[in-house]
Amino acid sequence: MDIPKQYNPKDTEKKWYKFWEEKGFFHAEPDPKKKPYSIVIPPPNITGILHMGHALNNTIQDIYVRFKRMQGFRTLWMPGTDHAGIATQNVVEKKLAQEGKTKDDLGREKFLEEVWKWREEYGSTIINQLKSLGSSCDWEKTRFTMDEGLSDAVLEVFVKLHEKGLIYRGNYIINWCPRCKTALSDEEAQHRDVDGMLYYIKYPIEDSKNHVIVATTRPETMLGDVAVCVNPKDKRYKDLKDKTVILPILKRPLKIIFDTKVDPKFGTGALKITPAHDPVDFELGRAHKLEPINVMNDDATINEVGGDFSGMDRLEAREAIIDELKEMKLFLKSEPHRHAVGHCYRCHTMVEPRLSKQWFVKMAPLAKPALDIVKKGKLKFYPKRWTKVYINWMENIRDWCISRQIWWGHRIPVYYCKKCSASSENVIVSKIRPEKCPKCGGSEIKQDPDVLDTWFSSWLWPFSTLGWPKKTKELKYFYPTNVLVTAQEIIFFWVARMVMAGMEFMKDMPFKDVYIHGTVRDDTGTKMSKSLGNVIDPINIISQFGSDALRFSIISITAQGQDVFLAPQKFELGRNFANKIWNASRLVLMNLKEDKVKKDLCQMAGDPSLTLADRWILSRFFQALGDFVKSLEAYRINDAANRIYEFIWHELCDWYLEMAKLTMDEEHTQVTLYKVLEKSLRTLHPIMPFITEDIWQRLPREHGTESIMVTSWPHMQKEFISKKIDAEMRLIINIVQAIRNLRATWRIEHKKEIDIFIKVKNKSVVSSLGANAIYVKRLARVGKLEISTKITKPKHSAVSVIEDTEIFLPLGGIIDIDKEKKRLGEKLDGLTAELNRINGKLKNKGFISKAPKNVIQQAKERKERVEVEMSSLKKNIRLL
RNA sequence: GGGCGGUUGGCGCAGUUGGUUAGCGCGUUUGCUUGACAUGCAAAAGGUCAUAGGUUCGACUCCUAUACCGCCCACCA
């Protein structure tokens, strides 16, 4: 036969993906006769390239989508990409910089053209990479957060929220990235601990030789100081009432204000107030009616207010100011101080808190329903612990700064009339650009230059992709979606906001379940990132090991919600498994006679032609199938993967295939082999779609379906599950293993056939074992095999005991009595210890009176079995 | 400052409501070109489940501390 010995995923995967796509198997139209199942993809950024996080994330989604599709649901996996405002603008700006240009050279319109060009060229890279993973998304439906429909949804939402009074514009301290030159939301400023300094500076008191010592981590902001604040209860500063201090360098007089917000224990207990550059100071400044003074430009250089320091970068200015203070003898000391500092989540530049006029969404009213739906348990998190994280965030929600001072994104639908809004806050909010000012008729209309936060489109994703605000049949059928699969990093950015948007605009949650998987890290536990150079490229892994191997491996080693530590060699697990399946299938394909496998399994449960081995593998298969489904439904995907692995490798391959070789041409073997393999492939298909398809296509067809991905999920046939059959086979397996163990212990040449005598207690076991003697003979290389209730131990024989079954291997001259004594003695010691443990339990009154019946029963049965085994062991030691 | 996760054989990890002889993969040792597979087969070695208490008839599993590692949130300048 021309099937190669090693599975080669390379050509196979491409071929089948193309086949699925061309057949339209990924496409899902609403079908009222079927139940819907839908997932929306977390849209990757158009700047993105596939990393292991994506690989894990999308493998999980694909598993569910393929699983549900086979189960008969009308299944939609909605794909798309995110325009990723700041990230994309940065990438294009960098590209321009290489050509020696800036965005301002081009101007807004030309620049946006460049971005669109860039997106045309690179924006679908990640989509193609997702395809090589095997993702069965409905690509015909692919959306982009900047496409027409989604842009319309964004405008609709802005207008509606504004009408409701939930969008407002105002001057507040926001996080400013001086490199991206835009405002950020609180979530976009990532706090990282930084080793900084706490500087102690003397502020002279007017008309006095004394001074107040102020402690600060950012001396450069003193240029914008407007007051010094102390706690009214702080006795050290009692005398400061009605005093004025002089701001060093700029010599500005500063009021002393009193407020309990100041912690007397921190620093010197005196806080300099810079309302334009610190949120706490801003609040204090407002409470005490102080005018903020902004001292920085948008690139964090000092502005004209800063006198000699103007033009310096903030950190440069910090040093210069300290030097000057030292010269003026107003610098007391500095001490190391570790504190959290915000950093831009896109470029990692230190964020500057800065007073700025921005657009905000009032979040508390939106949070309320989003909170309720989770508290009521209608929307569930897996693992559960994220519920608390979500609730905690929702309950402490702060308003969302949504305006960004960049060009790439949804332009804010706000217009200003030069004539009438210059003097007022009257703005025009409209989805369409107005010709004239509706208030004064003025024709000089200007649109707000800012764009919206990227997440302002992402939070609508579960319904905007389905057509909202239009009332489409897709929206009606597929919303709410079934599960959202994502990583913990984006719970606040995205998950929480989607719930709020869903509740507000659809009056229903966007998904029923949220599955939060772990973060992919390298084998030292560090998060994978391009800049650290520790990434394992999934595309690389795919070309090396295959997509199935990647998928299986990563799923198998990722426990629910736990972070996963990856190293390239871990993918050998999946590659080896794929190869194992490949070769098992080769064996079957080389032997299968198509005319012998057509029997209907539904009528086979009582079929007398089935042997113990046949019944056993069927029993084991259906148990594995049941466990597999149960695990998937509980989002315990690694359990599912490992369960089917265990079945295929260690039951089907290790035992049944070996046994089947002996009766390969008989119909019962043919049928069982075919059914079990075919069903195993179907079960495994969601995890390893390519290899299962490839083999399935080579098998005889039972139904008219064209592909494994559109066949039905294996039907559960509980009637095949039998504990009795399992136990019977267990004994045979144990005997084979015991004989192999004896062979190894006594170093019997592996080719040599040996004689074995087995003494059993019951006649019924004699006949059961007798009927399956060929398996024992074959699998343990036994020549003469005698099974009886009346065996007496042959001379010079080694023995192995399985409860009441004794296995004798005559060794003749090579037996070493001492060695055998020691071996059996050790086994006996182990059993004695166990018996003592069980006896201890059973003698314990508390155990007898309080433990559940079945547990006591179990202990008793175990005790009996141990005793039986011990007595036969003892007897055999005596006989040595 | 709060919250969360982790600590199980040499390494990486499972262990779902407390009752298992504590599992898996890699690695290790020994033996195998057994007519599907050396990306394999067979046999084996290796763990007082981080520490200290507690609850319980019974704890890897529940509770309370402690230690170490990691993450998230938070306006201590």
| Number of E-type strands | 29
Count of helical segments? 28
Note the main sheet: 4 strands, antiparallel
**CA-based gyration radius:** 37 Å
How would you sum up the global shape? Answer: elongated
Extract low-pLDDT stretches.
Answer: none
- Describe the strand arrangement of the main beta sheet, using strand numbers: 6-5-14-16
Strand content: 15-25%
Helix percent reads 40-55%
End-to-end Cα distance, whole Å, is 53 Å
Kindly report the average pLDDT value.
91
User: Structural class, please?
Assistant: alpha/beta
Outline of this structure?
The chain is α/β, with parallel strands linked by helices and 880 residues long. 43% of the residues lie in helices and 18% in strands.
Explain how this protein is built:
43% of the residues lie in helices and 18% in strands. It has 28 helices and 29 strands. Helix 15 (491-506) links the parallel strand 22 (481-487) and strand 23 (511-517). Helix 21 packs antiparallel against helix 22 (689-698). The relative contact order is 0.09. The chain binds one RNA strand of 77 nucleotides through strand 8, strand 12, helix 8, helix 11 and helix 18.
